[in-house]
C-alpha cells in the first residue's frame, strides 16, 4: 500500500476509535506559540515605541508609526491606527509593509486582514467619526475621549508602548501591560541572527519540525503577531469557542495547552480539553458586578490564547483606577496576520453582545421549522427508509420538522448527485415530506471527488485551492482523491449558484430541501493535523495559514448566498455548518461535532452551548444521544430532555451506531422522549421570540446565569441557564441514576416550579440569600422554573410539525414577582420569508401591574396571517383569591371564566387576540371576604 493510502486509511480508523492527541500541535510543538510563550518568561526591555512626529489625525482615526528596535539599532517601521467603532469600541491595528524576496516574493506581501470576513459589511461603515475635540496629542501619548457624556477614554502611551481603555474614569483594559507585543517582521533567513534579540527563541522560525507538518515551506519565515491584554478587577472570563471545557475560562499558564483556535476535524474529541476543535471565535468576555469587557482579536490564523489570573494590588493602572483586587492577563498569539484588536467596554455582558454584533452582525432570524426537531443519522439508506422513519414518527406521536441525509445519498459521495438506486425520485420524496410540513436536509461538503463534472468545472474555471506550485491542490477525504473549491475566490459564487439553482440535479424544483455544510475546517485526511497544508494558496495569493479559520465561514456563506438567490431572496435559507468563525452567525447554525454517547459529553454540551451563546453564535446544539457509540436508554432520555432546550435540536448518530429513533427504546423511555420533543414544540413561540431578540440585539438564546446575576456568586454555574429573557430557568439532569439535583437560585426573587412544562400548585422558591436547593427527580422530570416577573407564550396543541401549528392559539404564562408585576413579549411573522423586514410582523408586549394584564402590539396589526390568532388560556402564577376577571378589546368588555388554584389561577378562553391590544383586569377578593372563607 502506498504511503498516502496508508495514511488515509489510518486516519479513517482513527475517526472511528478515538482522538489522537499526537496528531495536533500543543504550544511547545507549534513554532510561533513556543517562541511567544518563551518571550513571556523573559526579562527584557520592549523594543517597540511610537514616533511622536508620525501622529496624524485624519479620516476619523489617529494613525502613526510604531518602530521596532533591532539589536543593530536599526528599526522596522510598523504603521498603526486607532479608531472608534460603532458601539464606542476601540480598535487598535498594527500592520507591516513587507517587501519580501525569494519564494515569498511570488505571494501577496500584504498581511491578511480577517476583518474582511468577520465584519458585517465594509470596515469603513463600522467606523465612528473621531473629531478634533475628542483627541489630545502630546509628546508622550494620545488621549481619546468618547461616548455619551464622555463615558469612555483611551490613552496611548508612546514609550513604553501601552494602550489603556477606561469607562467612567476607571481603567478596565490595558493593551501591552506585560510588554508582550511581538510582531515577527520579514527578514531573509540568512540574516536572521541580526534581527534576533538574545531573549528571543528561534524555534521553528523557517521550518516546521512537527510530525506531518514537516513539508511546510514557510516562505515568509517567522511572521507571528502577539500581544497581551490585561483586564483589571475581573476574576472570570468567558468565550473563545470552540473547546470542550468549562464555561469560565481557566488559568493556562502551567499547562501545555493554552486555548487553541484552529479549526480541525478532531474525531472523538476529549472533554475538559483546550485542544482545537471545529470552530473559532476569538472573542473573550470578562464579567464583574459593575462592568463587562470584551476583547476581540480579529485574526483568522492559527491562534493560541494564554490566560493568567492574578492580583491587581501592584498594578499601576489598577492603582490609578482605584480598582484593586483581581486581574486577568490574556496573551494572544497568532501565526500570521495583523495585530487587529477591538476592546469593548460596557456595563453588562449583554451590552458586549450587542456591540460585538454591531461589528460582526447578529444571528439571522431562522425559518421557524429550523427551531423544531431534526431527525438524523449517518445514514438513512434509501427513500423507503426515509419515508418509513417519517411514518413512524407520526405513528408514535413524535413531532418533527426535518429529516437529514448524510454523505451516502450521493452517487459514490459525489456531491450534487443522487444514488439513483437508493433515491430514484428525490423530488417525490421531498414532496411527500412537504405534505405534512416536513423538510429534508442534504449534506454538501467542500471536498469534491476528482473526475466528475462538478470537480472538473472547479478546475476548469480556476476556482480551486492551489498547492504551493500553483496547481490544483489534491488531497484525500471521504470520496478518495478530491479537490476543494476556493471559497475565498469571488468567482466561486457564480459556479456555486449554478449548482443550487432551480432545476439543478441536487435540488430540482423543491422548496423544502436545505443544506448541511460539514468537513469545512477544511478536513483533509491526508493533510497535516487532518487539515489543509498551510502553504496551499487561495485567491489573492494568500497562503492558507493566513485565512484558515475564516475559510469554513466563507464556504457556508457561499451556500447561503446561493440559496437566497435560488428563491429570489424570498425565503430564509437554513444551513448547518461544522466550521465557523466570527461572523458565521449571520448565515448558519452550528453543532459541537463528533461527540460520544457518554454522560460526560452530555454534561460538556452545556458549557459548550453556553459559550457559543456568550460570543454571539446562539444557533448552537449538540448531537442528541451522542454521535459515536450507543447510549443507554436512560442516557438517551436525559439527552432528549436536555437537547429539547438546545437552540439547534437534532438527534444524530454514527453509521455504526445502533438505530435509536424515539420509538426504538420502548416504554417507558419512548414516552419520556416523546414528552420532551412535544415540550420543545410547546415552547416554539418563546424560542422564536428569543431568536428574533437575538437577531436584533445580539442577546443570547441560552442566557448564562452570570449574564443575569453578575453580582451573585454564580460565575462558575455552567449546568443551568435561562432561556433568553423569557424567565424560564432550566437545570437539565446530566448525572446517571440521579434521584436528586441541586439548583442555584439567586436571592430575593420568586421561582415557580414548572417541571416538565407543567405548573405545580406549590409555593414559589424565594431565598433571602443566593444558594443551592436540592430537589428530587425521577426519569420523567425535567427541572424548570419560572422566574417571577416574567411572561412567555406556549402553544399546547400537538401537531405533527411546526408548519401545522400556524393557526393554533396561544397559552400565556405569567409569573408574578413579589410586587405582583410581570412582563414579556411574543414575536410573530410568517415564519419563513423576509417579509418581516417590510413590516409584516407583530411584536406584542405584555405587562401586568396591580392586577391588570395589558397587551401592546408593535407592528402590523392588520397583517391577515396573524390577525386571526387567539389566546386560549392564561396561567397567572402567584395569583390568589381572585373574585372576577374581565377582558377588554376593541371597545368591548366581557367576563372571563377562571379556575382558582391555591398558588395560581387559570384564565380560560379569554377570547382576546394574539396580535391585538387588550386589557384583562384581575379583581382580588376584598380582605373581609377572604377572612370569611
From TrEMBL:
The keyword rRNA-binding does not apply. It is found in: Endoplasmic reticulum. The keyword Repressor does not apply. Gene3D superfamilies: Glycosidases, glycosyl hydrolase (family 31), Golgi alpha-mannosidase II. Residues 79-306 form the Glycoside hydrolase family 31 N-terminal domain. It comes from the Eukaryota. Residues 1-18 form the signal peptide. GO terms for biological process: carbohydrate metabolic process; N-glycan processing. Pathway: Glycan metabolism; N-glycan metabolism. Residues 820-854 form the DUF5110 domain. Keywords: Endoplasmic reticulum, Glycoprotein, Glycosidase, Hydrolase, Signal. Residues 698-791 form the Glycosyl hydrolase family 31 C-terminal domain. GO terms for molecular function: alpha-glucosidase activity; carbohydrate binding. CDD domains: GH31_GANC_GANAB_alpha, GH31_N. Belongs to the glycosyl hydrolase 31 family. This is Glucosidase II subunit alpha. It comes from Clavispora lusitaniae.
Amino acid at each position: 500500500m502506498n504511503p498516502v493510502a496508508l495514511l488515509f486509511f489510518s486516519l479513517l480508523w482513527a475517526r472511528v476509535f478515538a482522538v489522537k492527541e499526537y496528531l495536533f500541535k500543543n504550544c511547545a510543538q507549534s513554532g510561533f506559540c513556543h517562541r511567544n510563550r518563551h518571550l513571556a518568561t523573559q526579562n527584557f526591555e520592549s523594543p517597540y515605541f511610537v514616533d511622536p512626529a508620525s501622529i496624524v489625525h485624519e479620516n476619523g482615526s489617529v494613525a502613526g508609526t510604531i518602530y521596532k528596535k533591532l539589536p543593530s539599532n536599526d528599526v522596522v517601521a510598523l504603521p498603526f491606527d486607532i479608531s472608534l467603532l460603532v458601539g464606542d469600541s476601540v480598535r487598535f491595528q498594527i500592520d507591516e509593509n513587507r517587501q519580501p524576496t525569494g519564494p515569498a516574493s511570488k505571494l501577496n506581501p500584504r498581511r491578511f486582514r480577517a476583518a474582511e470576513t468577520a465584519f458585517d459589511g465594509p470596515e469603513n461603515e463600522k467606523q465612528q467619526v473621531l473629531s478634533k475635540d475628542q483627541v489630545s496629542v502630546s509628546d508622550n501619548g494620545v488621549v481619546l475621549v468618547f461616548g455619551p457624556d464622555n463615558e469612555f477614554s483611551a490613552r496611548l502611551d508612546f514609550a513604553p508602548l501601552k494602550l489603556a481603555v477606561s469607562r467612567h474614569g476607571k481603567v478596565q483594559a490595558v493593551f501591552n501591560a506585560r510588554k508582550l507585543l511581538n510582531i515577527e517582521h520579514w527578514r531573509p533567513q540568512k540574516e536572521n541572527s541580526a534581527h534576533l534579540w538574545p531573549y528571543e527563541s528561534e524555534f521553528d522560525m523557517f521550518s516546521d519540525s512537527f510530525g506531518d507538518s514537516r513539508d511546510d515551506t514557510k516562505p515568509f519565515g517567522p511572521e507571528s503577531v502577539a500581544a497581551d491584554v490585561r483586564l483589571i478587577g475581573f476574576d472570570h472570563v468567558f468565550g473563545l469557542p470552540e473547546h470542550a471545557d468549562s464555561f469560565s475560562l481557566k488559568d493556562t499558564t502551567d499547562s501545555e495547552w493554552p486555548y487553541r483556535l484552529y479549526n480541525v476535524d478532531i474525531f472523538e474529541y476529549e472533554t475538559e480539553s483546550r485542544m482545537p476543535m471545529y470552530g473559532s471565535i476569538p472573542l473573550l468576555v470578562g464579567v464583574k458586578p459593575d462592568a463587562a469587557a470584551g476583547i476581540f482579536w480579529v485574526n483568522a490564523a492559527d491562534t493560541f490564547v494564554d490566560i493568567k489570573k492574578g492580583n491587581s494590588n501592584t498594578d499601576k493602572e489598577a492603582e490609578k483606577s482605584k480598582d484593586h483586587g483581581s486581574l486577568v492577563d490574556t496573551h494572544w498569539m497568532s501565526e500570521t496576520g495583523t495585530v487587529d484588536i477591538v476592546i469593548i467596554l460596557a456595563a453588562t455582558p449583554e451590552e458586549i453582545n450587542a456591540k460585538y454584533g454591531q461589528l460582526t452582525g447578529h444571528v439571522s432570524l431562522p425559518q421557524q421549522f429550523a427551531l423544531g426537531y431534526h431527525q438524523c443519522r449517518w445514514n438513512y439508506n434509501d427513500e423507503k427508509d426515509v419515508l418509513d422513519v417519517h411514518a413512524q414518527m407520526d405513528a408514535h406521536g413524535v413531532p418533527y420538522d426535518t429529516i437529514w441525509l448524510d454523505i451516502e445519498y450521493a452517487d459514490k459521495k459525489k456531491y450534487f448527485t443522487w444514488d439513483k438506486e437508493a433515491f430514484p425520485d428525490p423530488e417525490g420524496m421531498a414532496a411527500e415530506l412537504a405534505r405534512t410540513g416536513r423538510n429534508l436536509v442534504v449534506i454538501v461538503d467542500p471536498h469534491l471527488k476528482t473526475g466528475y463534472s462538478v470537480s472538473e468545472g472547479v478546475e476548469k474555471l480556476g476556482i480551486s485551492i492551489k498547492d504551493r506550485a500553483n496547481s490544483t491542490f489534491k488531497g484525500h477525504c471521504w470520496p478518495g482523491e478530491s479537490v476543494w473549491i476556493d471559497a475565498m475566490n469571488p468567482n466561486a459564487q457564480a459556479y456555486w449558484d449554478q449548482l443550487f439553482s432551480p432545476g439543478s440535479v441536487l435540488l430540482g424544483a423543491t422548496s423544502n430541501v436545505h443544506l448541511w455544510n460539514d468537513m469545512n475546517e477544511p478536513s483533509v485526511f491526508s493533510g497535516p493535523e487532518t487539515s489543509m497544508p498551510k502553504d496551499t494558496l487561495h485567491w489573492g495569493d494568500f497562503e492558507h495559514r493566513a485565512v484558515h479559520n475564516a475559510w469554513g465561514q466563507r464556504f457556508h456563506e457561499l451556500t447561503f448566498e446561493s440559496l437566497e438567490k435560488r428563491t429570489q431572496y424570498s425565503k430564509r435559507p437554513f444551513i448547518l455548518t461544522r466550521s465557523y468563525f466570527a461572523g458565521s452567525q449571520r448565515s448558519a447554525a452550528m453543532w459541537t461535532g463528533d461527540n460520544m454517547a457518554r454522560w460526560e459529553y452530555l454534561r460538556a454540551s452545556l458549557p459548550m452551548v453556553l459559550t457559543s451563546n456568550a460570543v454571539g453564535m446562539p444557533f448552537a446544539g449538540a448531537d442528541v444521544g451522542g454521535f459515536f457509540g450507543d447510549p443507554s436508554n436512560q442516557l438517551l432520555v436525559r439527552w432528549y430532555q436536555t437537547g429539547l432546550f438546545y437552540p439547534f435540536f437534532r438527534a444524530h448518530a454514527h453509521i455504526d451506531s445502533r438505530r435509536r429513533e424515539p420509538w426504538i427504546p420502548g416504554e417507558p423511555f419512548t414516552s419520556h422522549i416523546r414528552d420532551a420533543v412535544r415540550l420543545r414544540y410547546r415552547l416554539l413561540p418563546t424560542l422564536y421570540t428569543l431568536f428574533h431578540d437575538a437577531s436584533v440585539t445580539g442577546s443570547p438564546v441560552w442566557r448564562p446565569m452570570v449574564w443575569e446575576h453578575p453580582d451573585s456568586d454564580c460565575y462558575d454555574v455552567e449546568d443551568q441557564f435561562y432561556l433568553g429573557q423569557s424567565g424560564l430557568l432550566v437545570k437539565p439532569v446530566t448525572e446517571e441514576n440521579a434521584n436528586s439535583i441541586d439548583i442555584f437560585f439567586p436571592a430575593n426573587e420568586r421561582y415557580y416550579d414548572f417541571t416538565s412544562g407543567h405548573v405545580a400548585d406549590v409555593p414559589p422558591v424565594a431565598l433571602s440569600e443566593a444558594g443551592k436547593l436540592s430537589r428530587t427527580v425521577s426519569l420523567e422530570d425535567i427541572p424548570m422554573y419560572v422566574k417571577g416577573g416574567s411572561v412567555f407564550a406556549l402553544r399546547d396543541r400537538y401537531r405533527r410539525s411546526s408548519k401545522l401549528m400556524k393557526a393554533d392559539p396561544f397559552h400565556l404564562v405569567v409569573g408574578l414577582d413579589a410586587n405582583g408585576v410581570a412582563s414579556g413579549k411574543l414575536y410573530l411573522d410568517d415564519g419563513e420569508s423576509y417579509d418581516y423586514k417590510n413590516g409584516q410582523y407583530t411584536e406584542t408586549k405584555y405587562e401586568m401591574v396591580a392586577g391588570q394584564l395589558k397587551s401592546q402590539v408593535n407592528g402590523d396589526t392588520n397583517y391577515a396571517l396573524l390577525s386571526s390568532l387567539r389566546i386560549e388560556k392564561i396561567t397567572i402564577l402567584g395569583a390568589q383569591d381572585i373574585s372576577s376577571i374581565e377582558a377588554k378589546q376593541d371597545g368591548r368588555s366581557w367576563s372571563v371564566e377562571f379556575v382558582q388554584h391555591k398558588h395560581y389561577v387559570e384564565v380560560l378562553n379569554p377570547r382576546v387576540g394574539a396580535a391585538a391590544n387588550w386589557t384583562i383586569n384581575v379583581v382580588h377578593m376584598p380582605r373581609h371576604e377572604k377572612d370569611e372563607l
